[in-house]
Amino acid sequence: MNAAHLLNWTLLIPLLAVVGIVLCSRWENLRETASLGAAAILFAVVCTLYGNLRDGVELAVHWIEILPGLAISFRVDTMGMVFALIASSLWFVTVLYAIGYMRGHDEQNQTRFYACFAVAISAVMGIAFAENLFTLFVFYEVLSLCTYPLVTHAGNEKAKNGGRIYLGILLGTSIALFLPAIIGTWMLSGTLDFTPGGVFPEGTSPVLLSVLLVLFAFGIGKAALMPFHRWLPAAMVAPTPVSALLHAVAVVKAGVFSVVKVVVFIFGIDTVADLPVTSWLVYLAGASILLASLVAMRQDNFKSRLAYSTVSQLGYITLGAFMASQAAIVGSMLHITMHAFGKITLFFCAGAVYVAHHKSEISQLDGMGRVMPVTFIAFTLGALSIIGLPPLGGVWSKWFLMMGALDSGYLIMLAVLSISSLLNIVYLLEIPARAFLRPAPAGASLQEARPSSVVAMVITTLMCIALFIYGSDLYEFIRSARLV
């Protein structure tokens, strides 16, 4: 098969999985085998594309031209490959986890869950490999729509209200800000193709470019830059595998990935560095990092604390994008990867505690490390990766973000990143400290989550360690991207 045709299959395999999932809806083992099988095949295809990219093979496909120069088309590049590898590998792991969670919690509408999850992965592949801003926008919106049924999965009033906030903010920012930014880019440059160094002609008004950059920054609502972040905590009404999808596999990563792509390939990092509005956006991202961390410290609900932690960690990635240096961009892409595996581990642990012991508040976790040792060891290691301590992968992304702050001259951001890491220690390590250092509940016995969920947690925890060991390889691959 022509290597470029494999690019089509990255979008089609998850959609074919939907057919298999729906046809096997009466036989849950077959249904989940279809989902796991499709995830494994997709990961194999993405790995094949990775090999072709490393060998210098041109990988691009053209679907349809809407207007002259405005087409749905795809191309494999280094940044998109990083995102696709994260999403395709974590699809398999999340489905494995979901089997134990959904059955253990006797969730309804499981077929709809697996089907919508597959559609979301297809949309993510479209975003990862989009050749132009128009293609990215189309699949960005598809991702918002197909994840709405997952957010409202429970079907109760609380879930519906959370879904309204989720869809309202994401669609509202897209229509009111993101779409006008795309139209403005088209009018000023005549193209929406992702181009190293940017698309705007020399001499374009810095004021117009500043307005467009602000529209993109807030219009890409999935990046959860304050004040457009409320959708993310509101969506925590969803089952934990959905929270994992939102925080690690698809939605927020699609947001920050889009911000990085826009900065690098629509504006160009040199242009962004010179714009008068850039420093304002840098300070806003820094404020988001600290404010969300402070809010997280006050949350007693397990998933709510992790949600605000995600808002803070996304601030690291947007900060790196707006600091607009090569080291900062590399740090942002590294943090997309490190945060994905660290945060999904934390959500897996939260869900495991809820299913096995029906505890959802941090104040209820005293002594639970003696009852669920594997779960809380996994949580500890995932938290250390988020904090940025060796031997976990998160240390590399924070290091390069700090180097990016030095290169860009934003020395105050070194203090922001350091203070944030200290706050991470406070609100994340409190959880395993309670679990291991306080007495176990009276009459409690050893009871871990279902085996498939435990295996998924172990896999993502080991990946946090592997990303530390092989961090230099990932760094070199990201660094090979044409940024200018």
From TrEMBL:
Q: Which UniProt keywords apply?
A: Cell membrane, Membrane, Transmembrane, Transmembrane helix
Family per record: Belongs to the CPA3 antiporters (TC 2.A.63) subunit D family.
An example of a Pfam family matching this protein is Proton_antipo_M
What lineage, starting at the top, does this entry show? Bacteria, Pseudomonadati, Pseudomonadota, Gammaproteobacteria, Cellvibrionales
Boundaries of each NADH:quinone oxidoreductase/Mrp antiporter transmembrane domain copy?
A: 130-423
Classify the protein's membrane topology as the record does: Multi-pass membrane protein
Q: Which residues form the NADH-Ubiquinone oxidoreductase (complex I) chain 5 N-terminal domain?
A: 70-114
What is the protein name stated in its UniProt record?
Monovalent cation/H+ antiporter subunit D family protein
Which species is the source of this protein?
Spongiibacter thalassae
Q: Which InterPro entries match?
A: CPA3_Na-H_Antiporter_D, ND/Mrp_TM, Proton_antipo_N
Location in the cell reads: Cell membrane; Membrane
